[in-house]
Design a protein that fits this description.
The complex is a heterodimer of chains A (about 675) and B (about 425). In chain A, about 40% of the residues lie in helices and about 20% in strands. With about 675 residues, chain A is of the alpha+beta class. Chain B has about 425 residues and is mainly alpha-helical. Chain B is about 70% helix and about 5% strand. Chain B has a 3-stranded antiparallel β-sheet with strand order 1-2-3. Classes of the chains: A alpha+beta (about 675), B mainly alpha (about 425).
């Protein structure tokens, strides 16, 4: 064998080894090229499903869909010899705009926001007429195509918080469900849209299409083996009665607060209104992102419209909470309906004085007049049930409270919520401990003082208890049912089938024996017949109610009201909170009774109450508080009075007033003449 | 069948395997071209049969005629050639096109074999060396004048054959060193940003040290001494001027080299495109491939020239690692088999022709696969038997059958 022969053969073998090694690197040890192949030669075309329609309980459409057309551009297909002028003429933009838009897209492609091979939105919101016209000619411009994207169309102009809105997914949401969402997809961001996102969105359809080098499709990939059919979103019927909801929202105009109504028989939420309200139409259209920003930034006068006060705001429940104090007291055996506490002209206890009505009466009259003294004593006896161990008594009370769904998450189908607060024994131990440290006392903090810690105020719904409006409605539902409730929920049926969620089929029993409810209900009856809410009596249906007026540090009292109707066979429970409005029966009360009236009789008969509610505005009070708050923080600046403007305004006011006077004069003279 | 003895069954089997696998792959890229290639395969087999029926001395005796005919075909390109894909190396008769280089290679191989087998040949004589280099050089210069760099490289195959016949291995060493210095100096200059002067000085001082250490031996041989000094100086100037020469090259040729170490992303729209997509096609094949006619890159025609120079992409994508490695194995076995058979020949003519043939295949195989897998600059030469093209397949088949015929005669001769 010649050595040259051996060398040549060795060279051949080495080359073969190098090639096989290279081949194995390319094919087995890196997926860069496989990914590149998938990205460029196979295109996945997504078919966006129609989002499910949202109905109210009576079949009224609240949120539907409308097609929204846009022109998309595949950047690589836009060549140098493109007929720019002809195209601009077709879609009705100027050449400058065209160049600008392409520039922006080029920049985004450079920043790797999109690929130059995939379609990018070029022009949004094209009218239906234009679409018809453009569609016929656009084939001349293969770089561009018309894309239809379903968009929400709202058939109502209120309840924005309840319905929620959709928007493009953010990176966090993509990470959570990266198998489904792609950049640019829509996702429910709040309200029902968020809570029922999976139901409403449907499933995107997928078509794998093979593309050739010029990005023309050359048929389906693997004969469509991997394709997926599009599944349209499921329609949802809410438990909300929109007419009732609308009424509640009207009565919340120019007020901060919330009205919640439930059907106590099944936990369905009939009304969930919050003030200020949002017009959901702000969530669609070209101004969408601007509107969303404005809503989020609207904090003047503590407006915060995106804060759903019906489920997110925890308020001191005020006197409405006395009902629960009574129930807990009786269940714990520290009192009964005949117990009389040493009252008369208010609560006097170890130097503490609380003003209040009523005398030394038993439970029913105490509820009727909302005796602060009575329920403070009642709560004290709860705390003192185990002498020397107040925490044990309070924890027992807390367990009973929690069984009414307060102080805990309701665990329902709403996108947001809050626990509220029912303090525990430990809570007061810590408070006592801190107080002891401050004054250097060596007293046993475990045997805390209900007066010094402020626990005594819990009995009348002040102090440390906090409830959301929906929790108030829920505990009233439990009272109406004499000891049980269904979790409040907002979806009645999905695609015509009852909501399958098992959470809403469990009857939650409270820890209070049904027999203790009778005196409380009698008390609530007395409230309407001759007590604090007697002004809201009507002959059309019977009501059980309790007023609440909670003191708040910022300013005027919160007006609170809870109501059950009709009394014998409850069909609806309503709870309302109006911030800084004043007495419970004056503002929250009419709202509750009107909602009940409309639900039971089908119409609002007491027009005067309705007018009073709709016309009332508490904005001046909110403004006063806001300015006071700013002043406290040293941020307030007097607005500069523009003298010329002011003068103009005064002048015009003067003219208007003069005209008015003339008019009335004329009218009176005419009337006189007629007589 | 007695007459069948002496036909190399392994060689013929591998030839048939390669050709039919090629037809299948070309068919996957483009059904029409696949059918055409099948027809050319049939024609090639027919021509092969005719070659088997000729006398084997026929090729030895008429080597000069073949050689001159091939050379004239190359020269004729200048007045009569047609430009396809920027290279004027095609003849066009109606719809049929042919590349004369493929046939000139046969003529050159026969002529070289004829000369080397002559009685007065000895590579130790300068005359023999010059004559044989002239036989290779004349058509090579004609090829260079077209210009067709890829085919020119293939003429290196004849030097490999001469190497077997006694040419010094330093010949390749020198080419290797020059190539390395050129590329390394360019590489130092462009992506690394070193002044070529440093590298030049490095070579100079290394050379100086070499001379100092071997001063005693070099002093006795003034010729070797002068040669060493001249080589060192030439290498120095090469190192210094390489980047400048490189920058003078046409832009696309520069990029073809640069893309190998700078990555294809930078040249995505020019030289990098083909490389990126050929790697994409191969790389997406995985272990078992996407299946026959299922390659999305192939079917999408993302790789230009896929049926010809880049046909290996189809194998890579649709047959995966297993198929591609199998193909590489088949080539290595086939080329190795021809070297082996050549080594066994009793006649020098047969041996030299066999070495020429095997080396042509080897260079085509190395350059083509190296290019497709991104190990070698883009040079447009086909994969033997595999790339689409009638004249290419016919020329390779003619060479194959001439060699099989020579081998057959050799096995049946009594000498």
């Amino acid at each position: 064998m010649k050595p040259q022969y051996i060398k040549i053969i060795s060279f051949l073998s080495v080359i073969a080894l190098i090639f096989v090694a290279r081949l194995s690197y390319l094919q087995l040890f890196t997926d860069r090229y496989a990914l590149n192949a998938a990205n460029t030669s196979i295109k996945i075309e997504y078919i966006i499903p129609q989002r499910g329609i949202v109905f109210d309980r009576n079949g009224k459409i609240l949120a539907g869909n409308q097609p929204s057309y846009e022109i998309s551009l595949v950047r690589t297909l836009l060549k140098e010899d493109f007929d720019t002028i002809g195209f601009c003429h077709l879609i009705g933009i100027s050449k400058n705009e065209f160049i600008q838009t392409v520039k922006i897209i080029d920049r985004d492609i450079k920043d790797k926001k999109y690929s130059k091979l995939s379609p990018v939105t070029f022009l949004k919101n094209i009218s239906r007429e234009d679409v018809a016209r453009i569609q016929e000619i656009i084939f001349k411009y293969p770089a561009f195509s018309i894309v239809s994207r379903p968009q929400r169309q709202y058939e109502v102009s209120t309840s924005g918080n309840l319905l929620g809105y959709t928007n493009e997914v953010n990176t966090g949401e993509i990470k959570k469900d990266s198998l489904y969402y792609l950049p640019g997809d829509l996702i429910g961001k709040s309200g029902v849209e968020k809570a029922y996102e999976k139901v409403l969105r449907g499933e995107k359809g997928m078509k794998y299409i093979q593309k050739d080098i010029k990005l023309r499709s050359i048929g389906s990939y693997k004969n469509g083996e991997l394709d997926k059919e599009v599944v349209t979103g499921k329609d949802i019927t809410l438990t909300i009665d929109y007419d009732l909801q609308r009424l509640a929202e009207e009565m919340l105009a120019n007020k901060h607060g919330a009205i919640v109504a439930l059907d106590p028989n099944n936990g369905e939420i009939l009304v969930m209104a919050t003030g200020p309200d949002i017009d959901p139409n702000l969530f669609t259209g070209p101004e969408k992102s601007k509107n969303l920003y404005r809503l989020a930034m609207d904090t003047v006068y503590e407006n915060k419209p995106t804060f759903d006060r019906s489920i997110q705001a925890a308020y001191p429940p005020g006197s409405t909470f006395k009902l629960l104090t009574a129930l807990a007291g009786m269940q714990m055996g520290v009192m009964d309906d005949k117990t009389i506490f040493p009252c008369g002209g208010g609560f006097n206890y170890r130097g503490l004085r609380i003003k209040g009505h009523g005398g030394a009466d038993p439970l029913v009259p105490a509820i009727q007049v909302s005796s602060n003294c009575y329920f403070s004593h009642a709560f004290l006896s709860i705390v003192n049930k185990y002498p020397g161990n107040p925490s044990k008594g309070v924890d027992e009370w807390k367990a009973i409270m929690n069984s009414f769904g307060v102080g805990e998450f309701l665990n329902n189908d709403l996108a947001v919520g809050t626990k509220g607060r029912i303090p525990s024994g430990e809570f007061y131990e810590n408070r006592q401990k801190k107080m002891n440290e401050r004054i250097g006392s060596k007293k046993d903090y475990k045997n805390w003082d209900p007066l010094a810690t402020g626990a005594v105020f819990n009995g009348m719904g002040q102090g440390d208890v906090m409830l959301t409006p929906i929790q108030m409605a829920n505990f009233i539902a439990a009272i109406a049912n004499r000891g049980w409730y269904y979790t409040p929920h907002i979806v009645k049926s999905i695609d015509g089938k009852p909501n399958p969620d098992p959470r809403f089929k469990v009857k939650h029993k409270t820890l209070v024996d049904p027999k203790y409810f009778d005196p409380v209900i009698k008390g609530m009856e007395a409230v309407v017949l001759r007590g604090t809410a007697k002004g809201l009596k009507t002959n059309d249906f019977t009501q059980l109610a309790k007023t609440g007026t909670a003191q708040v540090p910022q300013g005027k009292d919160n007006s609170i009201f809870v109501l059950i109707a009709p009394a014998d066979k409850p069909k609806i429970v309503v709870a309302a909170v109006m911030e800084h409005a004043g007495f419970g029966a004056t503002w929250a009360g009419p709202a509750c009774t009107l909602v009940a009236e409309k639900y039971i009789t089908g119409e609002v008969k007491r027009e005067h109450l309705y007018k009073k509610m709709v016309n009332a505005s508490f904005m001046p009070e909110y403004k006063r508080q806001w300015i006071a708050d700013l002043k406290r923080k040293g941020l307030y600046k007097e607005p500069e009075t523009d003298s010329v403007k002011l003068k103009k305004k005064m002048d015009s006011l003067k003219i208007v007033n003069e005209l008015k006077q003339k008019e009335t004069l004329k009218n009176t003279t005419i009337q006189k003449q007629q007589r | 069948m007695r007459s069948a003895e002496g036909i190399d069954k392994m060689g013929l089997g591998l030839y048939l395997l390669l050709c039919s696998f090629a037809v299948a792959n070309i068919y996957s890229v483009d059904a029409g071209l696949g059918k055409k290639q099948l027809i050319f395969f049939g024609i090639s087999l027919f021509v092969g049969l005719i070659i088997f029926l000729t006398r084997s001395k026929f090729f030895e005796n008429l080597a000069g005629i073949f050689y001159i005919f091939g050379f004239l075909l190359l020269i004729g390109l200048h007045p009569f050639g047609t430009e396809i894909l920027g290279q004027k190396n095609w003849y066009k008769f109606g719809s049929f096109t042919m590349q004369p280089v493929e046939f000139a290679k046969i003529g050159t191989a026969l002529m070289l074999a004829n000369y080397v087998s002559g009685p007065d040949f000895n590579l130790r004589y300068r005359k023999s060396l010059l004559y044989s280099l002239a036989i290779i050089g004349i058509p090579a210069i004609a090829v260079l004048s077209i210009p067709d760099v890829g085919s020119l490289l293939v003429f290196g195959a004849f030097v490999i054959a001469l190497y077997r016949e006694g040419l010094s291995g330093w010949f390749f060493g020198a080419i290797g060193i020059v190539g390395f210095v050129f590329l390394f100096s360019t590489y130092l200059n462009d992506p690394l940003g070193f002044n070529p002067l440093y590298f030049t000085l490095f070579i100079f001082f290394t050379g100086l040290l070499f001379v100092l250490f071997n001063f005693r031996t070099l002093r006795r041989n003034i010729n070797a001494f002068a040669l060493t000094i001249v080589s060192i100086l030439m290498l120095c100037s090469l190192a210094y001027f390489s980047p400048k020469v490189f920058e003078k090259l046409p832009k696309h040729q520069q990029e073809r080299v640069e893309v190998l170490y700078k990555g294809e992303k930078q040249f995505r729209d020019t030289s990098g495109y083909n490389l990126l997509y050929s790697k994409t096609a191969i790389g997406s094949g995985g272990l078992w491939g996407k299946g026959y006619k299922q390659g999305s890159v192939t079917q999408g025609k993302f790789v230009p020239e896929q049926e010809t120079d880049y046909i290996f992409c189809t194998v890579g994508e649709e047959w995966g690692f297993m198929g591609s490695a199998f193909l590489i194995l088949a080539y290595v076995l086939f080329i190795g088999r021809i070297y082996y058979l050549s080594e066994q020949q009793k006649s020098v003519f047969n041996r030299v022709f066999g070495y020429c043939f095997a080396s042509i295949l080897l260079l085509h195989f190395c350059i083509n696969l190296g290019m497709v897998m991104g190990l070698f600059p883009t040079v447009g030469i086909p994969l033997p038997y595999f790339s689409y093209g009638g004249s290419s397949l016919l020329a390779f088949s003619i060479m194959t059958f001439i060699f099989f015929k020579l081998n057959y005669t050799d096995k049946n001769s009594l000498v």
